UniProtKB/TrEMBL annotation:
This is Iron complex outermembrane recepter protein. It is a multi-pass membrane protein. The lineage of its organism: Bacteria, Pseudomonadati, Pseudomonadota, Betaproteobacteria, Burkholderiales. Keywords: Cell outer membrane, Ion transport, Iron, Iron transport, Membrane, Signal, Transmembrane, Transmembrane beta strand, Transport. It is found in: Cell outer membrane. One of its GO terms (molecular function) is siderophore uptake transmembrane transporter activity. One of its GO terms (cellular component) is cell outer membrane. It comes from the Bacteria.
Length: 97
């Protein structure tokens, strides 16, 4: 079973007899950042994301997690440094007509 990007549709778990389940994972690596005048520096970081969904008839239930480990990191330092988003979970239920 291949794992896909957490932001994509994922991969069906047909290999284990669960075609209605999709799982996905993603790793984002960003190298060191610095301000325009190199006064501020942000170190490199890796953030992990994950998704899971279940389809039952016309319904699709999904859970998307970004920054699974709730890592604190600096995303950019244009003039001042900014922290990246903390862990975020989004749940959804979709009915297909």
């Amino acid at each position: 079973m291949k794992l896909a990007s957490a932001t994509s549709q994922g991969e069906r778990a047909d290999a284990v007899g669960l075609p209605q389940i999709k799982l996905g994972a993603n790793a984002r690596y960003v190298g060191e950042t610095s301000s325009q005048r190199h006064q501020y520096r942000g170190g490199d970081y890796t953030v992990f994301d994950a998704m899971a969904s279940y389809t039952a008839g016309p319904w699709r239930f999904a859970l998307n997690l970004s920054n699974v480990s709730d890592k604190t990191f600096i995303t950019a330092c244009p003039y001042h440094c900014f922290y990246g988003e903390p862990r975020k979970a989004i749940a959804s239920a979709v009915y297909h007509w």
